[in-house]
Amino acid sequence: MLAVQQRVAYIKLERKFMLNHAATKTRTKPRTAPKEERKTQLIKATIRSIAKHGLSVTTMATVAREAGLSQGIINLHFQSKERLLEETLRFVVDEYRAIWYKTLESSGNSAADRLTALVAVGFDKRICQRNKLAVWFAFWGESRSRPTYRNICAERDREYKQVLTGLCAEIITEGGYKARADFVAHGLAAMIEGLWLDLLLIPADVTPEHARAVSLSWLQDVFPGHFPNN
Amino acid sequence: MLAVQQRVAYIKLERKFMLNHAATKTRTKPRTAPKEERKTQLIKATIRSIAKHGLSVTTMATVAREAGLSQGIINLHFQSKERLLEETLRFVVDEYRAIWYKTLESSGNSAADRLTALVAVGFDKRICQRNKLAVWFAFWGESRSRPTYRNICAERDREYKQVLTGLCAEIITEGGYKARADFVAHGLAAMIEGLWLDLLLIPADVTPEHARAVSLSWLQDVFPGHFPNN
DNA sequence: ATAGTGACTGAATGATTATTCATTCATTGA
DNA sequence: TCAATGAATGAATAATCATTCAGTCACTAT
User: Fold this and answer.
1) pTM for this prediction
2) Which DSSP state fits B29?
3) pLDDT, position B168
4) 3-state helix, strand, coil in chain A (%, to 5)
5) Contact status of B159 with chain A (Cβ, < 8 Å)
6) Gap between the Cα atoms of B150 and A193, Å rounded
7) Is B156 exposed, middle or buried (0-12, 13-18, 19+ CB in 10 A)?
8) Which one, A85, A160, B24, B215, has least CB within 10 Å?
């Protein structure tokens, strides 16, 4: 019964693409778009499977079942399981980066406003979902033994910390605080990731709103002149 | 060649126990001690295997090989792979708790001293080893889908945060700070775990000493009266 | 000495897994 | 309408895994 529903969903997806494709009138690469759609469909199924079963119990079969497609489909689109997993990690990492970049663009001019916005993104509904947090931690858990995972994460991390350090430096200069920008930024980034862990492990005690409040309260403590307490 | 050395080591262990046992003169449970020794030997081999290969590639064979023992040994002592993994997590969790309890007992009377000591334990050489950090994150990564793992961690977490909150509350009262004790403690605990992630992912950039410095600098920023900056 | 004890071994077993590929099916251009 | 195209299927395959257990070995008590 469920399989039928998923089959229907797949057919709709196929139809939708055809319309889109007809509209673009590109002829050199027919059916190129549905390939991408299939890939993201499979990546999203992988995220659900990792969240539901864990990375070590996520098999080609669980992902295919979650996507409502057949066994062989993953090798067709990703060549191997390993590639699927790498692209899944990249998907989550890139999504986070894209959102905080965009947020910075559309946020205020003051360093304090921008910092607030940047911190809040970590607890945004689009990012801070338990399924996605499970994916982050699943890959972090394997990253000691897989340089590929580590590199994908490290790259993102450097960028993020660089921006964070810049904003902290600006605030410190403005306010004449004693704190060291790199230490503050490093601690702040670490705190956000640690709060993610709480959201994953004890969701009953900690909500995204609560975690955001903890972060912002910390900003008030460290930069009292810029983030007035009440 | 290596196997022979390990075999020799095993024999020595066996001999050592016999002497110990003769000394205690207990007769009802003979050979009970070497069983425990074997178990911790296997648990330590599991830690190395998880750090080297990752949890999802850690098999009965990799653990047995790492311990220099045979295939069947794990089922003999732990009944199943799952039990071995649970006891490995418990081993690491209990070790951390034991050390910070002991540290608190032997540290100064002032809340500030005790808090400093408690934070420093997180970066102690006995705790903050990359192999062990890999184990923490490996299990956290699977914990979304395994209530057993989650419970083992959650229990420890509650205790730790409770002590942390108590110390922060004391300091806040003494110094008349505006900060909320539960928020500060929550943020601090999260930061330590986030710094562990950096130690795991980018050990070239972050050392335990550096991470400890970041934490202590954070304490200085939040409680300037209790942790004077220079 | 020697039989008894129980920790330990490692080959065998059955279950599970990623990957392959001959076949099916839907869609397209002529 | 129909041949051509290539995405999707799912049964088959080979590899890997946890678990079992009959047999081995070191040591103890008699």
Assistant:
1) 0.86
2) S
3) 98
4) 75, 0, 25
5) no
6) 17
7) middle
8) B24
A-contacting residues in B 36-65 (Cβ below 8 Å): 51-57
Q: Which residues touch A180 (CB under 8 Å, ≥6 apart)? A: A172, B217
- Say what the pLDDT of residue B230 is: 59
Query: Where does A72-214 show beta strands of DSSP type E?
Result: none
Q: Are B167 and B115 in contact (CB under 8 A)?
A: yes
Q: Is B11 helix (H, G, I), strand (E, B) or coil?
A: helix
The whole-number average pLDDT for the span B151-169 is 95
DSSP B113-147: HHHHHHHHHTT-TTT--HHHHHHHHHHHHHHTT-H
Determine the distance from the C-alpha atom of residue B104 to the mean position of all C-alpha atoms in its chain, rounded to a whole number. 16
Nucleotides of C under 7 A from a protein CB: 6-12, 16-22, 26-29
Q: Are B51 and A144 in contact (CB under 8 A)?
A: yes
Which pair of tokens denotes residue B114? 């005790």
Structure tokens at B189: 């605990």
Residue A103 CB burial class (10 angstroms; 0-12, 13-18, ≥19)? middle
The pair of structure tokens assigned to B94 is: 């209990």
Joined tokens for residue A99: 């959102």
Instruction: Report the residue from A141, A178, A217 with minimal CB separation from B140.
Output: A141
Q: Does B177 touch chain A (CB under 8 A)?
A: yes
- Model pLDDT for residues B172-219, shown as the tens digit of each residue: 999 999 999 999 999 999 999 999 999 999 999 999 999 999 999 999
pLDDT at A8 over 50: no
> How is residue B48 written in tokens?
């190395």
Nucleotide nearest to A6 (CA to C1'): D8
Beta-carbon neighbour count of residue A43 at 10 Å? 22
pLDDT at A65 > cutoff 80: yes
| Residue with token string 């108590």 | B166
CA distances A78 to A37, A56, A59, A73, Å, are 13, 19, 14, 8
- Alpha carbon of B129: minimum distance to chain A alpha carbons (Å): 12
Strand D proximal residues, A:6-65, Cβ < 7 Å: 10, 14, 30-31, 34-35, 38
Burial (Cβ within 10 Å: 0-12, 13-18, ≥19) of residue B60:
middle
